[in-house]
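okkk here we go again. third time trying to get the zinc ion bound version out, last two times i messed up the smiles copy paste (missing a bracket lol). double checked this time i swear
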Amino acid sequence: VRPSLLLLLALPALAAPRKPTQAPDPAATAALLLGQALSSDEAYEELRELCDDIGHRISGSPQLDAAIDWGMRRMTEDGLAVTLEPVDVPRWVRGPAKLELLPSRAGLAARELAILALGSSVSTPPEGIEAEVYVVSSFDAFDPARAKGKIVVWDAPFVGYGETVRYRGEGASVASRAGAVASLVRSVTDRSLYTPHTGNQRYAADVIPIPAAAITPEDAATLHRLQDHGSTPRLRLQLTATTEADVRSANVVGELRGRERPEEIVVLGCHLDSWDVGQGAQDDGAGCVTVMQAGALLAALPQAPRRTVRVVLFTNEENGLRGGKAYAAAHASERIVAAVEDDTGAGAPLGFSADLRDAKGDPDPAAFARLQAALQPQLGWLRPVGAAHLEAGWSGADIGGVVENGALGFGLEHDMSGYWIIHHTDADTFEKVDPDLVRRNVAAMTVFAWALAETPELLPAVQP
Ligand SMILES: [Zn+2]
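finally!!
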């Protein structure tokens, strides 16, 4: 064959447009997505809308309904196929609350203490409860004989959220079982500037529900000192919280259908509900705009990722987890290969935790080692935003059900040094969120989602 003919034969191939079926270059696409994420404030602007135009969004509230409409509209504009999956959620309504430390002797005034009722708390009688306190630092140190007729104050030092939050969750039940008339918990935080932190609590099935609320670490310490120095402080407590009938809510699901394996699904999750204080900016508004923007950037690619990506704005994480449970049940027969949650604030992204379990549901270090080895190149794409670290750990509450059903579970990890101090308080507001960190979080989430949705041999590497 003469050279000229060879050239001629080659020409049509050279001139032909790039075949649409040709797979995108994974690393180049990751770099493109990273650059787009780092140069856009769209997620930050969405968070401002959510916080300022709608505000906090407790389950059953009109604001949560408005946020669901907003999420549906925004994700539709971003090019995702959006559906609402109905879920009935509890409706707990906080009323006014008042707590006073009564004077220790005649001539002194009562002092009003900051208080926030805990989710699902019952109210006091209208005239309130007046009782002596029994301050105790742990369940181990709790003496049931001292609690009868008292207001129990759980002054548990913060050693970590997972461990310390048990006093908020179970304290009222333990106190009630011993005959206490109310339960107050030191707010679950590592630092405090005299701010009470709300959160959920659950009455055990065998106890009489007693009023349950959070006080500041400062007041818990004061009451503890008074007790240690031989006085018996008395408190007057008035709570007016009520639990109403369940309300219809929904998970908002935005889908980008996979180009090659649409039946394999990667879920990006957050929760749209919040507590009824502050603006739910970091818990979990920031997580929602991050996964929404990741979905938007993936949808704008010339070709969709290999697998289907679903952005799920879960409902009712804070006081029921019904959105996460309903999603896992409704999609149990699908192949959700991986799920990533963003629900630990808007601090700098540090990497991802991987929640890999064996058949018994225990952590599986061998599977983690295989996953870590398999994802090395993809983790490298995250180095520019400091999020290349992968460690074994917890994924997220909302995606817990799908992880139990077999999905690889991941959590976007953040620097949480500024998180607990505002968590579940009136201080969880928009202006505390740093736009540069939002961009970096979006970059980390988008590139990681791309890695999970595009990498062909992800699953065989983990589950051989
Ligand atoms: Zn949260």
